[in-house]
Structures are given as structure tokens and as C-alpha cells.
Amino acid sequence: MGEAPVLALIHRVRLRIRLARALAVAARLAVLAAALFLIALLLAKLHLLPLRALLGCGLLALMLPLAGALATACRRVASEMAAKRIDLACGLDDRIGSALAFLRLQTPDPFMRAHIRDAARHATGTDPRTALPIHSPPEMRGLAVLVAALIALGVLRFPERHLRAAYLPQASRATGSEMEAARALARDLEEAAHELKDPELNDLTKQIDALLQKLASGDITRKEFFEKLAELEQRYLAQKEGDFEALKDKLRKSGEALAKEKPTRELGQALKKDDLDKAKRELDQLAQQAQQQKLDPAARKEAARALEQAAERQRRLMDEEQKKAAAQERALAEQQRDLEKLARENPPKSEAEKRRLEDQKRELQRLQKENRDRQAQRQNQQRQLQRLSRNLADAAQQMSQGQSGQAAQSLQQAAGEMSRIAQQLQRAGEMQRVKVQLADLKEALRRAGQQGKEGRQGKMGQFLARAGGKPGQGKQGEQLFMEGEGQPGEPQLLLPGQGGKSAVQLETDQPGAQSQGQTPERQPGEGIGSEHDPNLQGAQTKLASKKRDVSVEGKQGAGPTRSEVIYGAADKGFATRSYKRVYTDYTQVVEEVMSREQVPLGMRYFVKRYFNLIKPRE
Amino acid sequence: MSQMPVEEVERSAEEFRKDVQRLREELAKVIVGHDEIVAAVVTAMVTGGHALLEGVPGLGKTMLVRTLAEALDLTFSRIQFTPDLMPADVVGTNMILEDDSGRKRFEFQRGPVFAHILLADEINRATPKTQSALLEAMQEHAVTVAKKTYPLEEPFFVLATQNPLEMEGTYPLPEAQLDRFLFKLKVGFPDRRDLHEILDRTTRSETPRASRVLSRQRILEMRELARRVPAARPVQDYAVRILEATHPESPSAPAITKRYVRYGSSPRGAQAILLGSKVRALVQGRYAVACEDIRKLAAPSLRHRLILNFEGEAEGIDPDRVIFEILDSTPEQV
């Protein structure tokens, strides 16, 4: 029997020693890693550690024991040590160790060879597991406790107030990635401009890019940026949006006239349903019938009457609108005069009054400018409607005179005009997408800019105060949109009492309660006195200010545009009805998307929390 | 022997083990208990060393030696050491003898030392001069009288006894002489079961006697075989490190050595350990020395070679305690 069993046994035990050492080291490091991960998880639960860092910690905690075990397993184990382990564990009285020593001699004597043979006999019947049993490391108990703690902490839900307090700093953290997100949104906008082949939108994106660069380089402040962005957006949307509801309304009313007669009934129905494409087709068909003289005289007569009535109704509506616009212009001019007169007769005394007056002037100028823009836009629509009306009137006249060919030509022109109006309305729908992208861009920039000097808690406190419509830091009353009043998108300024004194002045000019019981000729005497002050109740409050009753008529319309509502909500809070409508629309879309898409739970939380923060305040 | 095949080695070792076993069985017929003492005495005898038995009277020390001589086909002498014992009483003397023609001549009359097994009973009662007479015989296996040296026949095996209690009128053995003993064995009091056995055996009409089981030649062969048992370097290193640890100036010495030991064991201590371990290995059926053998034989080999300092003596430190602590603090593998 050779030395092979001895060497094989030693080899197997060496492997087991490496394994046992690796397990022991892995267990120790696993305890350490679990403890560290427990701390990291706790910090993450308290939102003091970002999720990415927690994942990094988890990966590290996983790798640490593995790396330790691997490094330990790679360490060399001396054969002598393995042999000694075998001898001690199996009670072999140094048979294996001595045999190993004798094997390393060049010429072992017969006794040594006999010993090696004896050791080989014993090695054959020796199980390495007996020689080196691998037990569970003692650290496993501690590890189990830590793992249990990790699981418990993992399923534990911290109270909301903890979450809220912990989340606040993170929510207001401004990072470069948010600026990058804003730039990405700007690029999306550029792509949309390219797709829509809209040169004005292309110009807008270039200007936004320039603004972003200025903001990044610090040439303009964040406030200036938002002001300029709002200005650009307003200018762009004023050109594009227009008061298409008014246009549709006029077309609907002319459609009612057309629907009364049989030959033009389908055309009228299409206009009533705002289906301008179908209306165009019906006009084309009517023109074709006129051209081919398929209309009998009675039908021609009916069609001519209907077209005449429709044209007449359109003209009448346009006249009414012009009158209203002129009246608005006059009202604004009158308001301006009143304001100037108020300032002239009662010049502001305090700084607050001056500031308030200036704010009112600015607001008035803004309203006038908006009115002018709206007039310009309305004129464009009116020109289109006038052309349509004229074509319809011509067609009616030519049809009644039996000039079928010319009538057909006029109807084809009317169909072309109808087609242009339809395209315009379609583009207005596409503008909604642009508006959403602009809103996203502003939101991203607002998040990037929420790193204020006053600390994040203070910012969030201001936000919550403003969200509820409460004053943040003294800008109350500068602007006030009156929902549901005026034309769509037409705010109206609330003026103070026009009696030559402001409300503040009224209070300060009245001695009233302040002078009660303090007549200058009477000096306070000694003792408690025998009668009460004759001027016990003070003078009667004088309401001598000039006042004027203003009757404000509620008007139907879409109210302020969405951009105005959102912009106003960001500045003035979430306590308006129009904002509530916007919010409802947005949340419905978000709910649909979140139920449809695979949104990670952590992200769902952020989305929901965001909408919770911006929900309308009662 | 160096050309001996492995099978021959195995056979010789097996015979060795059986012979020792038979010898121990024969001794066990007479000697009750004291297995370790018997094993150590046999080991010392096989290795060619001498043993010092320490114990109170009546524990069977003399009986052990006598029975050993009976079991072996060897001559046996006993010397009762007394203060007036003279060296000549031990080694012998030249006497004037007159022959038939009337001529006178000196003739050496051999003393009791001329035996294979010598029992030096109560060796510490003789004067150092007489004790020294035994010194040369133990070390040189020869006796010199009147400038003439007389070799002692092998095997020569001295078993000395001493009483640890009676110190009055005794002459403690000097360190040099103690070092000549391979082992110092402490004979303890038998337990109750052994006492019953002793009484049963010694109070009956027939006294058990041992038969001769080993010849002189066989003993010499066994001694030769035992010396060929190898010790792997790590095992031998263990013995060396134990020996080093008995010296208080050694870095590996434990605290007890540094505190209570004045001088550690001589190299003879390691020799004794290793020789005894070789015999033990063969008896245990092994062909090489193990650390367990070293541990088992450390105490009998070293206890009489440690010289305690004043503090150790004053506090009554047992050298065995020092040795056990050395064994505890010395790892088998570096």
C-alpha cells in the first residue's frame, strides 16, 4: 500500500479546511454586512438615503461576504496542518503527520516505510468529514437575528408625518438632472415644431433654448426666466389659439338657418355638430348639383333662401361682436381714466399704497394689451367668416337668379373657405400637445429651482400656504382673475372704492374708535370719577367716499386658458374652480396611464404624492 | 537492520509488542495495580535506563523489582542502603586469599552491583560517598576497583527506591546522580479494589509467582529494535520545545517555569522522553513516535531533572505541576 491514500486524505481535508474557513469568514462578514444594510435600510425608510444608494449598499452587503469567502478560500493551507487536524480528530497518534514528514525524506528507512504503510491503512478508513466536520458558524445566530430585523424593517411602514418630514428636503432638491430634464423637454418641443412644420413654434423653441442657456450661465434669474417664458408662451398661444369657440358658435347658428331647408339640411346639421369637414363636402356636393343643374327650381329657391339666411345671420353676429369689443375697449379706457383720476385726487401716501396703485396700473395695461391682441385675432377670424358669408350670399343670389354655373363657383369658394377654417381648428387641437409640453418644461424648471436660501422646509411651508390660497409673503391682491366673467380668457380687474380714498385711507382718516373717550380739553382727574365719558361711543363712522355700483354680468365661456390657470395656480394657489377642472382632467389621464403602464411602485408614490400636493384646496 | 524489509519490521514490532505484553501480564500476576509504574519500569528496562521509584514503604516497590527479575531470565541483587553502607559493599572489594601452596593473592570479590537487575532500596539513606559508587556503575555499566575496571553484564538495570517522608538521617541524591536515572516514578497508594486484590493474593497459602518469559538475549534485541523507531521531525521538535520550556530563561517558558524553576532539564531529559516514547510507540502498535508518547513520558523523564528555586521550594511546588503547565502551553505544532 503506497502513500496515495495519505496524500489524498490530506488533500481532501485541506479543501475542507478552506471551505470551513471561507464559511467562517463569510458568516462574520455577513453579520457585518447585514448590520450595515440594516442601518442603510433604516436611513432609506427615513428617506435620508436615496433608493439608488440603498441598492448600492445592498449590492455591497451581498458582495462583502462573497469576496471575503473567496479570498479566504484562495489562501494556501499547509499540508502539515491538515495532517495534524486529521490525527487529532481521528485519534491517529500523529500517524498521518509523521507519514507526511517521512514521505518528504529522500531515503526513508524500513521503519519509516512501515509507518507510511500503517498510516495509509488508517487513511483508507478515515472519512474527511470526521477529520474536519464543517459546523454552522456561531455567527449564524446573530445573522439570523439581523436578517429577521431586516425583514421586519422592510415590511414596516413608517407614519406619514415621518415620511412627509423626511421627504421634504428631497422634494425641494435641485439637481443638474432636473435641468437636464428641462433641456430634454425643450428638445421634445423642438421636435414637435419640426413635426408640425410650424415656424413660429420653431422660433419659440429657439428662444426657450436661449433662455435656458442664460439661466444656466446665470445671466438671468429664475424669476426673470419664468416671466420671459410666460410672455413667450402667451404670445405664441395668442397667435395660435384664438377664440375658436366664438367662431364655432357663429357657424353653429348659421347651420341652424341652413338646416331649415331640405337641400341644405345636411350642410346645416354638419355645422351644428361642428363637423366642418362634412360641411365642406356638403358644400362641394351642392356646388356639383348646381353645376349639373340637378336642382329643380323649388329646390334652388329653398337653397337660395337658406344660404341667404345663413349669410345674414353670420353678418349679424359679427356686428354684435364688434359692438361688444368696442364696448370692452371703452370700458377699459374708462377704468384707466378712473384709475388715473383716483391717483390724481388721492395721491398714495404710504409705500404700500403706491405699490398697490402701480400694480393696478400694470394689471390694467396688461388687460388692455390682451384685449388688443384678442381684437387682432378676432379680426382675422372675422375676415374668414366675412369671406364665407359673402360666398354664401353670392351663391344664394346667383341661385335665385338661375345662374347655376356661377352659383356652383361661389359654393366651391365657400367650401374652400370652410376647409381652411377646419384646418385652423385642427391645428388648434394640436396646440394642446404643445401646451402640455410647455407645462412640463415649466414644472421641471420649477423643481430644479426649488433650492431656496430659506431652506427647504420653509419653501415647502410657503408652497403649502400658497397652495391653499393664503398669502405667502405679501403679494396678496396683486392680480385677481374672475372666473366665469368676461370673455373667455378675459380677466377683469377689481377696483377699489372710487370715492377718492382707498379703503386704507378710509380707515385711517376716521378718528373713530381711536379717539373715543379722549377729548383734548378734558384732562384726566383724580379718583374714579362720577359719570361716564359723554363721547363714550365715539363719532359715527363716515362713509363719505364716492362709490359706484358696478354690475358685473356673468358670461358664458371657457374662462381662462389652461396655461393661465396653471400659471396662476403656481403663483396664487390651488383654490380656484378652474384649477379644479384642470386638475381633474390631469388626474384622470394620470390614473389611466398608471393603470395601463407598468409604473414602479416607488415612482407611483412620487406621482401620487405630486398630485396630492397640487390637489385643489377647498 | 537497515536492509530489513518492511514486512520484517512489522513482524519484529509485532513480536516486540507481544513480548512486552506477556511480560506485563506476568508482572500483573504478582503486582496488583500500578499499571503505569509497571509500564514505565519495563520501558526503562528495555531502553537500558534506570528508574528511581519514590514512595512510602509497603507499596510493593521491592516486590515489583523482584517479580521483574523473576519474569526475566536475569540475575537480581538487592542492596539495602544504610548510612554505614560502604562503597565496597556495593561494588565489591579485593580480598587476600591464600592458596593450597600458601601463597597469598588478591582476588576481587564482586559486590551486589554485579547483577542484571539491581534494587537499590532506600538509596537516599546511604552517604553520598556510597551513592557515588553506584554512579559509575549506572553511567558506565562498569566498576573500577584498585585501578581495574570490571564491566557489568548487559543488561544492567538499576531500580532505586526512596522514601519521600523520612528526611531525618537521609542524604538526598545529588542532581548529577538524579540525572543518571531515566525515569523517576512516583508509586502511589493503591485504591480499594487493588487493596482487596493485594490482600487476597498475599494472605493465602500459595503465593503467586511469575514465570520467566523473556531471555537476556531477547531483551537486548528488543532494546536494539526500540532504538530504531523513528521520530518525525515535528514530533521530535515537540520534545525539544518541551525541554526548552523547562528553562526559565527560554522565551517559550511559561510563567510558572520563570517563577519557580532555577534550572531546567539537561538534554538527558529529552533523550529519556524520546527513548521512552519509542518503546511506548512499539507497545502501542506504531512504527513512529507520536506527540502523545512525548506527553505521557514527559513527567517521569523530567520531574527529577527540574531544580526548583527557593520560591518554588518554599511554596512546595510540585515539579509535576510545572511540567503539566509546560505541556499545556506548548503546542504540538508550530
Structure description:
- The complex is a heterodimer of chains A (618) and B (334).
- Chain A has 22 helices and no strands.
- By secondary structure, chain A is an all-alpha fold.
- The radius of gyration of chain A is 43 Å and the shape is elongated.
- Chain B is of the alpha/beta class and 334 residues long.
- Chain B is globular, with a radius of gyration of 21 Å.
- The chains are: A mainly alpha (618), B alpha/beta (334).
- Chains A and B meet through helix 3, helix 4 and helix 5 of A and helix 1, helix 9 and helix 12 of B.
Helices and strands, with pairings:
The complex is a heterodimer of chains A (618) and B (334).
Chain A: H1 4-45, H2 51-74, H3 79-90, H4 95-103, H5 110-124, H6 128-131, H7 139-155, H8 160-171, H9 176-196, H10 199-217, H11 222-240, H12 244-258, H13 265-272, H14 276-291, H15 297-345, H16 351-400, H17 404-448, H18 456-467, H19 503-509, H20 562-572, H21 577-596, H22 601-613
Chain B: H1 6-30, H2 35-47, E1 51-54, H3 61-71, E2 76-80, H4 87-91, E3 92-98, E4 104-110, E5 117-121, H5 128-140, E6 142-145, E7 148-151, E8 157-162, H6 175-178, E9 183-186, H7 192-202, H8 216-227, H9 233-245, H10 255-260, E10 261-263, H11 267-283, H12 291-302, E11 307-308, H13 310-314, H14 319-329
Parallel strand pairs in B: 1-8, 1-9, 2-5, 5-8
Antiparallel strand pairs in B: 3-4, 6-7, 10-11
Helix pairs in contact in B: 1-2, 1-3, 2-11, 9-11, 9-12, 11-12, 12-14
CA-atom Rg of chain A in angstroms? 43 Å
Percent of residues in helices of chain B comes to: 40-55%
Q: What share of the residues of chain B does DSSP label as strand, in percent? A: 15-25%
Gross geometry of chain A: elongated
Number of strands of chain A: 0
In N-to-C order, the SSE pattern of chain B is: HHEHEHEEEHEEEHEHHHHEHHEHH
Question: How many strand units of chain B?
Answer: 11
pLDDT average of chain B, as an integer? Answer: 88
First-last Cα distance of chain B: 33 Å
Major beta sheet, strand line-up of chain B: 2-5-8-1-9
- Please trace the helix and strand order of chain A, writing H or E for each element: HHHHHHHHHHHHHHHHHHHHHH
Mean pLDDT over the residues of chain A: 75
> Class by helix and strand content of chain A?
mainly alpha
* C-alpha geometry of chain B: globular
Helices of chain B, by number, come to 14
Backbone structural class of chain B: alpha/beta
Tell me the helix content of chain A. Answer: over 70%
How many helical stretches of chain A? 22
Please report the two chains with the greatest interface, counting residues with C-beta closer than 8 angstroms to the partner's C-beta: A-B, 20 and 29 residues
Low-confidence residue ranges of chain A:
161-175, 472-522
